[in-house]
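Researcher: Next sequence.
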Amino acid sequence: MVRNIETIECSCSWKSEDSGERINLSEQDFSEIWDGKNNNVLVFPAKKFCQEIVKTYPTVDSDELLIQEKEIIKKLSKKAAIESEALPTSPIIKEPHFPDKYPDGARRYQMQAYEEWLKNDKQGIFAMATGTGKTITSLNCALQEYKNDGVYQILILVPTIALVEQWIGEIALFDFKNVITVFSENPRWRQQIVKLIDKVSRGKKVSFVIVSTYQSFTNKDFQQILPQLPDSLIVIADEAHNIGSESVRAIFRTLHLKRRIALSATPSRIYDEEGTVELESFFNDKPPYVYNFPMSQAIEEGRLMEYCYYPRMVFLNDDEMQEYASITEQLMRLFDSSTGQFSDSQKAKKLLMLRKRILHKADDKMRVFKEIINEIGCEKLKYCFVYVPEGNKVFDSDEALLYSNTDIDSDQELYEESILKKMLDLTKENFPNTTCNTYTGKNNKTERKAILQGFENGQINVLFAMKCLDEGVDVPRAEYGIFASSTGNPRQFIQRRGRLLRKHKEKTFAYIYDMVVVPNFQSPYYSKDFWQMERSLVKGELTRVAYFANLATNNYTGALQSLDEVARFYDLVLSELILSINQ
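Model: Next structure:
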């Protein structure tokens, strides 16, 4: 009422640096007020504030209220006059610092990561479990370098737009300024970086942060600019396994920037040994890597949530088995049992993709899904993620060979919503009062933010997701996870498990239900000739399950019992699979 903070200002960020800086300061001021960090503004929940007004000023007579208001303003004006004499005359300029929300500063392991990075010539891979603070750990390295250099210059690479936005939030916590985003939603990034390079070329010490998606990083415009960026730049590659793609690899082979940090819970590229070796060479590192913070350590130290794990068997029905068997017979003709390899790897890969689609759309998943949600129960079915399998169409095997891998993947997208809808309908049918929503690639940025916010505050009980939550998106409130998607890629499951294990003040435990799909070996369409080839595939799936079970609280109290029959049939010992896992 006395020190009114309302302002109206019109600035054009593109006209001058001063205007841009004014806008940045306004945004910073607003964020501090909104987050309750401005000492001159008290923030109250709206409902509570209204209740206090009604209680303190119950009268509805406007004249009486105006008299009371004048008395309040008189008292506040006197108080403000006294306080104004003690106000500082110059503004306080904040330097980069470790986030205020961590009053004790960087954790011991975060400083240890920095020290190990220094020892490795400021290069290395941080192999840290999802949810253990990879982002903060890497930005702390940049902060420590700023303390030595007096300037910060950072290039951050991420796989998705959602992660661009998430990183911007983390960067703001460190009070790093002059942030440029390089992605489709910022059409002016070229001009912004060119201006930056111009200042650097004139000998100015300019601090800045560039955040780019990997896709934009490979853009020809960015590649023309990249060589002009200063050698002192620190490259932070988030979800660094994405560097294994050929387009990004080609750039890193000639990259002039030497200070490098790779971040990943799973640095090894599954099924791509060559890509893994090259990734490690780019960051001058190899297992166990410059810094390693495995999930076992994170759970033991209380950085991640303890969890129970419940694998559930899903079997193919007769129609699915007939189709599966037909493709398997074609694979058998390509399979060399002595070497365990296929004679025509490209043809085999396409056939394996077709079989994967049969597993994806297995009808039995609906039965198992219904059993799981009924077991959880209506009262507890809250803060629940369901990872839905992608796709519900399978080509006949002759048709499939007409398609390239890209064609199959593109066609897949046309059909992937059907299973999601079936599961969503099944949930509403069993629990009509349960609120559900979907989080897919078709949601735009605003929709995704609103959906995650609704899930966080409990307005959405069950969230059905396809792929979009695999990398980086922070959803600590999730307590239940139902994995209905059998991708065969351990990285996806590790990422998804990490989503569930993030700590939250109102969360005490996590529960993971995992659908394990295997061919029905009791079906009349199952041939004993399949056994040898199927065993290696089933072993891979059960090893993934054993990896999940290994750290679960209920590991020794029944987490794997449902798999015993399948394990015996394929002559696999689950305890041996667990021992074989290198944590």
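Model: The chain has 23 helices and 15 strands. Residues 1-62 form one domain.
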